[in-house]
Specification:
This protein folds into 2 domains: 8-43 and 54-268, Elastase, domain 1 (Roll); 326-408, no CATH class. Helices cover 44% and strands 9% of the residues. It is built from 12 helices and 10 strands. The protein has helices at residues 13-19, 25-41, 90-110, 159-172, 181-203, 265-268, 274-287, 294-304, 312-327, 332-343, 353-365, 379-408, and strands at residues 8-9, 62-66, 77-81, 122-128, 135-137, 141-145, 213-214, 229-230, 239-240, 244-245. β9 (239-240) and β10 (244-245) form a beta hairpin. α10 packs across α11 (353-365). The longest helix has 30 residues, at 379-408. The relative contact order is 0.09. Its EC number is 3.4.24.-.
Amino acid sequence: MSRTRPIDCIIPPHLLDRLLRSEDDDVRRAALDTLLTTARLRGERTVRASFAGVASPGNGRRTVFDCRNGRFLPSAVLARSEDGPASANASVDRAFDGLGTTRDFYRQVLDRDSIDGRGMRLDGYVHFGVRYNNAFWDGREMVFGDGDGRIFTEFTGSLDVIAHELTHGVTEHTAGLAYRHQSGALNESVSDVFGSLVKQWSLKQSAEEADWLIGAEVFTPGIDADALRSMKAPGHAYDNALFGRDPQPDHMSKFVDLPDTEEGDHGGVHINSGIPNRAFHLTAVGVGGYAWEAPGLIWYESLRASGVDTRFQEFADTTYQKAEELYGAGSPEQLAVLAAWQEVGIRISGVPAGVARARSLAAGRNGGPGREDGPGRGDGLTALTRRIGALTAEVTGLARDVTALRGGK
């Protein structure tokens, strides 16, 4: 079935829908204008800037344009190029720096050459529209609104928002996760994961030090909200009269079934992403240290190994397999992955419940979910890990023997 590809926006539709119910006329008008503008833009992925020759393609070269509050991207004016001086416009420079930090993260940490892996140029557009309450990736370029100044502030001020949106491009050029239901929620979660990792990498923060918030800077100071989402505590990013309570679930038992429509957030892609978000956070804390190292690599390789319709269970299984390929069977990294998914209600396929419980306990002793003995990795844990690895090998061998016997009948 042919589908119009949605624009990947950082502000989920349920928040804008809440603003439509505001008693403040200005707030309502800004929200409605944002929704109508986004609807007009949806599917218009052939819109391109008229300055294609300004920065040569390749090497992730950056160019930032100023829309001057217009909505027609080809009419935007060149504001800063890769070889040009800094701009007098703070929004331009923030966008330029955010594009560069994200590009450098993918290049230095994951050995990826820009968004498409082939040096794709990075074009950004600032001051898009009037009081436009969003920022989005449309498949080719990054576009930033200024916010309405009442609820949302200027969107270039959040590095994780920039990295989140650019990561939609990475997903598009790897797994191509369909933007609906569980695959769409994974799409959103992957963007949150690497949006947070880019911020942590730039600040040199460990998993324990990071705030794990997405879009903490997008609200004006008068709004009682921590951020758009919390990866550490889905469902607790905000709770106020304006937006209501953060609807993200943190466990499969709370999964939200919504229709695959614009009003239904394409099956709740911005809502159910809380489940895999928490799984990544738990993995990162379980492994310890810098989350962009082992956990980030496991998630990145799992993304590359995924497909258009990959669901939560398949992705969880892939992260477990990739942890083994990268760090070994029964490794602390694999234990952390297993325990994290189990904590959010997803059991890794093929791992017997008894082995899963033992491994979860081992991960807990390593400082992960359900930990009892703190973050140390003592001799007892090493011995337990080896025993669990041996048991898993025996179970795997037995399963293969059974399969062979069945095939011989």
